[in-house]
UniProtKB/TrEMBL annotation, chains A, B, C, D, E, F:
Signal peptide: none annotated. It comes from Candidatus Rhodoblastus alkanivorans. Residues 35-118 form the Carboxymuconolactone decarboxylase-like domain. It comes from the Bacteria. Pfam families: CMD (PF02627). This is Carboxymuconolactone decarboxylase family protein.
């Protein structure tokens, strides 16, 4: 019991560090429909995986931006993780460079969709 | 000729059983652009495949919710099939459980997109 | 500590129930390269998710056969889960029917690859 | 009844025109595991779709080589369709050009896998 | 230097021939966020690849419509290339036939999403 | 002319730095079937993209390992890039950590396929 609570709390703290305090209300909205997906999202990626010392948070977020660009369809999650990447120390230039590199591995449509999402994140932040 | 009409009629009746009577006008709208895609959609999945006795309609719709969650991009079709799944006897809990399980096989972004679509279906129905 | 051991043990027992006793040596081989992927595989899908009561094991394995057919590339995992599905009560007819239905949602190449894998599982078992 | 037989026969004749007489024994092998996938494969793509006059067989096979290159995983089907494309009038240069163009839309890994498959088809034919 | 300018100019002229003069302002908007993705898009697909004589522009656009239908998620790019395909000599019937054929290789959800995009292009043009 | 040669030579030198001298004969084998795909592979990713200063080679190879793990089907290319990643300074632990993280974004089958490929690279190098 004890342990389960601390996995959740650990993951939630890490999500706030990456995505900012607004992530709490986004999780609440997700949990209204699926409390289980919300809980697993906090615990599995952000407590079990992102806590591991082998890669730092900036590198992890860069890898995630690459992964979501390749998948192509989850532009809502890419929006979140571009914001997350900027919060943990990525520059805009690095994010756009990751997207450009993904044109090599997943094609130009993947890169073009991701640039549009990056543009909307950058615009929100001005 | 005879046979062709009955494949279409059989498929259309099954689509109405799954998706409700509104599917007829949705098919008409599709047929305005592509009568051939509309006709094949009625005949191939819903007459040739869904009519087969090995799996019941509820199981078929559960499998389709899984398939569309994995594909990730066809959220319009997922919306339709979540409504279909509910119509043929799935509970909301079962649909959300399928989506949660797909996080294992297609990752969390796939599950998160599907939860959003499920949420919008559930909200429409209240 | 206690809890962590029991999640692993619970997941491992469930994997043995699904895949048979041979899964233990397969996990050992996986753990030689990546003990972390092996541990997470036991704990996340097979303890956290498959243990949940909303869907029974047979339904879960059917959904997984659908998911892996749609993904197309993980034929090694599909081989495993077809064997798993048979172990937990699916018939060969049901597995082939799932694959046929996936031709609708992911196209014929997905179905053809999956039939080849099903054929090799069925042949091993004769 | 009549009609069903002729759809199958029509599709089978078209498959032989595209893939050569060897396709009959390949279909038999497929039908040993799944007679339904085999029958639907003959009837749906090769009777219902490829028979339509809007696109000629050469164009259809070029589109299919593009589609399978983009999907990436079904290299067995790509092998078949490269042979089919050559049979219905494509040149090797055209096939390689399609694959090169797909590097733009699906990335270099897709193109590299397809070139390997094309190389093995070309080598068999010498 | 000389050469680099001419690759860009050659690609830009070809993009205008395919997509119409409006593509220049779309490229400018893309270049505001990522000048490098914009430049590579002009130079790699439209100067290096589409300039090659083996396939004509109409065939290339047909292949691209197939590729984007299969990928499924890049409906914005599909919208562009359906307009491009019409500009370089494809008929609406050919475009819808390509989409129908892709139902065979990528499933009905891919075809249904593409028909919706084709419908919106056709409607814009009336 | 001048410029074109130097793009190729620059890309080839970078490929040798990443993949070792053996890459030259692999490119020759590729060029026997498709000299154009071989040339574009050297020039576009490895001259135009990887030469850019925003990301170092180690980061680029980590991103590529992530991308190929997500795509799932190009295990031959993943094998190459895992070797490349090790050559430019990644540790085995980092590569396995990237693969583990990709279980979150692309599911466990993607991670399991990639671990098998990593295992075969590590075994070759002992």
């Amino acid at each position: 019991m004890q342990e389960k609570i601390s996995r959740y709390e650990d993951g939630l703290a890490r999500m706030q560090a990456i995505f900012g305090p607004g992530v709490v209300s986004e999780l609440s909205r997700l949990a209204e429909t699926s409390p289980d997906v919300a809980r697993r999202l906090v615990e599995f990626p952000f407590a079990d995986i992102y806590a591991r010392p082998v890669l730092d948070l900036k590198t992890r977020e860069m890898l995630t931006v690459a992964a979501l660009t390749v998948l192509g369809y989850p532009q809502g999650e890419l929006n979140q993780h571009i914001r997350g990447a900027l919060n943990v120390g990525c520059t805009r230039e690095e994010i756009l460079e990751i997207i450009l590199q993904m044109a090599v591995y997943a094609g130009f449509p993947a890169a073009l969709e991701a640039v549009k999402t990056a543009a909307s994140v950058f615009a929100e932040q001005q």
